[in-house]
Amino acid sequence: MTDSTEQRRIVAAEDFRDDDGVRLVISTCPACGSRWFPPRTVCARCAHDGTGTTLSGRTGTAYASTVVRVGPRGFPAPYVLSYVDIDGVRVLAHTDGTAALPPDAPVELTSGPIGRDGDTELWSYRVRRVAEGAR
User: Fold this and answer.
1) Which of 31, 58, 56 has the alpha carbon at shortest distance from 42?
2) How far apart are CA 101 and CA 15, in angstroms?
3) What pLDDT is stored for residue 124 in this prediction?
4) Strand runs labelled E in the chain
5) Residue 65 backbone zone (phi > 0: left; psi -120 to 50: alpha; other: beta)
6) Assign residue 12 a region: left if phi > 0, alpha if psi is -120 to 50, beta otherwise?
7) Which residues contact 44 (CB under 8 A, 6 or more apart)?
8) Averaged in consecutive runs of 10 residues, what is the pLDDT profile of the chain (135 residues)?
9) Cβ(121)–Cβ(7) under 8 Å?
């Protein structure tokens, strides 16, 4: 609860950690070396069923980004979505700010609100741009 009238729900809470900084839970395949997010138990590349998990670092780079001008109910537009590369996986994340990120922009993982479901605030991992050399 954020206060007496509002609830907060963590989206896909088992897929990321927010202890000493946000990190993603990444599946790793010991047979072919593939990495996946969100985590999975069977490798989508070679079908090995003994994947392990590891935690990502806290930083990555933008691959592509867009400003969503018309969003679904509960996600007031405009908002920014970005594909980012973090430790060998490409993930889609809500992005702080109002402008799309340029390719190769350095980002760091954060967590925060991404939308609402009625009176419940939805929280998940996000990214924000960091200044060059600040990582």
Assistant:
1) 31
2) 24
3) 93
4) 7-10, 16-18, 22-28, 35-36, 52-55, 59-68, 79-86, 89-95, 106-117, 120-129
5) beta
6) left
7) 34, 36
8) 57 80 94 95 95 96 98 95 97 97 97 92 94 67
9) yes
Distance CA 125, CA 84 (A): 12
Domain boundaries, the chain: 7-129
Are 125 and 49 spatial neighbours (Cβ–Cβ below 8 Å)? no
* Nearest-angstrom CA–CA distance, 116 and 53: 30
| Rounded Cα distance, 47 and 53, in Å | 16
Residue 23 CA to residue 57 CA, distance in Å, equals: 6
Cis peptide bond prior to 38, omega within 30° of 0? yes
Phi/psi of residue 107, each to 5°? -135, 160
Q: Which two tokens stand for residue 27?
A: 């599946």
